[in-house]
Amino acid sequence: MSLRIEARPEISRRLLYVTPVLAVALTVLAGFLLFLLMGYDPLAALYHFFISPLASLYGLSELAVKAAPLIIIGVGLAMGFRASVWNIGAEGQLTVGAIAGGGIALVFWGQDGTWILPLMCLAGVLGGMAYAAIPAFLKTRLDVNEILTSLMLTYVATLLLSMLVYGPWRDPDGFGFPQSRLFMDSALLPIILEGTRLHLGVAVALFVAVAAWVLMTRTVIGFQIKVVGQAPAAAAYAGFHRKRVIWLCLLTSGGLAGLAGLFEIAGPIGQLIPILTPGYGFTAIIVAFLGRLHPLGIIASGLLVALSYIGGENAQVEVGLPQAVTGVFQGLLLFFLLATDFVTKYRLRYVSARREVARA
Amino acid sequence: MTFDSTVLILVTVISAATPLLYAALGELVVERSGVLNLGIEGMMLVGAVTAFGVTVTTGSAALGILAAALAGASMALAFGILTLSLTSNQVATGLALTIFGIGLSALVGSGFVGIPVERLHRLQIPGLSDLPVIGPLLFEHDVLVYLSVLATAGVAWFLTRTRAGMILRAVGESDVSAHSIGYDVILVRYLAVLFGGMMAGLGGAFLSLSYTPMWAEEMTAGRGWIAVALVVFSSWRPGRLFLGAYLFGGVTILQLYAQGSGGILGLPAQVLSMMPYVATIVVLAIIAGGPWKGRLDAPACLGKPFRPAT
Description:
The structure holds two protein chains of two kinds.
Chain A: E1 2-7, H1 13-37, H2 42-51, H3 57-82, H4 90-107, H5 116-142, H6 146-166, H7 200-218, H8 220-230, H9 232-237, H10 242-269, H11 280-290, H12 295-319, H13 325-340, H14 342-345, E2 346-351, H15 353-359
Antiparallel strand pairs in A: 1-2
Helix pairs in contact in A: 1-2, 1-13, 2-12, 3-7, 3-8, 3-10, 3-11, 3-12, 4-5, 4-6, 4-10, 4-11, 5-6, 5-10, 7-8, 7-12, 11-12, 11-13, 12-13
Chain B: H1 3-32, H2 40-58, H3 61-85, H4 90-109, H5 134-138, H6 143-161, H7 163-173, H8 175-180, H9 185-211, H10 223-233, H11 238-260, H12 269-273, H13 275-289
């Protein structure tokens, strides 16, 4: 009798949803060892990382505030990943969305009007879409790898924002700090829960996830996206346009990233500053995978990854852990998830001696 | 612009090209074996922080460089285990490696920010280094610069003139055939991936010990990604890769020099800083759309997971 690893006839659906939990458990275990190695009390550090941020209403609201952009971006990216369209420049699209929407807020600064915020949202979405259109165009016309172009454009977008807030858009009364004017109330998202920073964008994030779920499971477009990703040959035979799917995925994910960027500046930040996020555009990639590229799964993974940000800040204040631990955790989480994926595709089986002989 | 300053600029171009050359050369070998590792940025950063940390603590740059190569290779090993043994998606795993590397290097390096380190010793070659123009241009660099040039020639020789190189290419072109005639596809790919990690680590070491002798978070500033683009640019050939790396080194230095001398046409510094990134996109577009389209020669099995049937 011997042990043998063999491919499962089809991917185990059950394990597909068990492995993310396993990956989280392994990450916590790795965190325990890491903290021990770094000379911290591991239990106290883990407590301040994962539990104490959730112990208050304010903590919970902050969790939602951080999760909202991750969910919005993650849902868009997941759509593309399903079709093997690798937009990893969401951070750049987020930045351009914020620049476009923030530009509206600054142009109409000093004016009051309920139309300003919707116009900003529109500009944010269009800005992100326009920026994602560049890799889409290069991909569909010239077959240029969208991973590289979208990523290079992220650096360009960050520099563009820096140029604006150090230059023409700098707050004239800001003592020379590289930041724009503080937005007027008419350019800020309404707060849902008094006394917290919970803004309207959080509700929109949930709506986006549900809408994407309907799109992916109940429409022909969603079906086409999945087929193009899983069986390109079948998709071509069925007459699905791969290029159209590439455009659709990049424009949607770009637009959503732009919206997320707009929500950041019209929500928690309230102005344009040189660095808008701690890398939400990249972290959203982890969120998308951890959520199994499923819009509803992404709500859960978005909340979990948001906890790693808040936990990181909290643990820094409480036990003096370096902020960089957050990035290590996020990387480990994705590693473990990819590693545990193996068991969804393969299984261990005992093969009896008699069957061994029969095979031979 | 005086003659001397031109020589000085060319010397810095060589410096700017070297980290790109290391990282891209490693990735070229990895991709030739049929594996796409997008974690170069992360491996470079871990290499950079390791080289810096070991050099500062032990006082030996040689140990620092060696440790950086090992650190890069260990990161690559993690990538190999996931993609080669556990058949995970190479794109996603590469991204994970980069995210992890950024975090890990920031964590390890938090104690090293702001500490100075002695720049890597420049070799003086008696006689040659004293020559006018040629001396400073070619014979006054540190050991890593010379090693990068040697490595380019070595990789070119290995891929085209050795049996092992042929096997590596066969594995990248058709894993199934290579397997069926008895080559260990997974082993070959492991070795290639480890080499790629080692080279990325060395590229990082050059950054933190020679190019800008210090440690700063995310100091690679996208060079790992530019290296991936360079491999495409080179159509997987070491000679063209060398040219590409120096071309990009030139673009980087050109914009730095333009910033230093007060800018061109009153353009803000940020517009000049965009140049290397925009140049990457433009070059990729030209390569893809040019008359040589379709003859890019990407290894046929690039990015496809392989698991031998038992």
